[in-house]
Amino acid sequence: MGKPMITTSVKISPEFHKLCIEEHISFSEAMRVGISLILAEKGMSDYDNNLNIYRRMNLFRQKAEESLAKIYELEAKMKNKEKEE
Question: CA-to-CA distance for 63 and 75, rounded, in angstroms?
Answer without folding.
Answer: 18
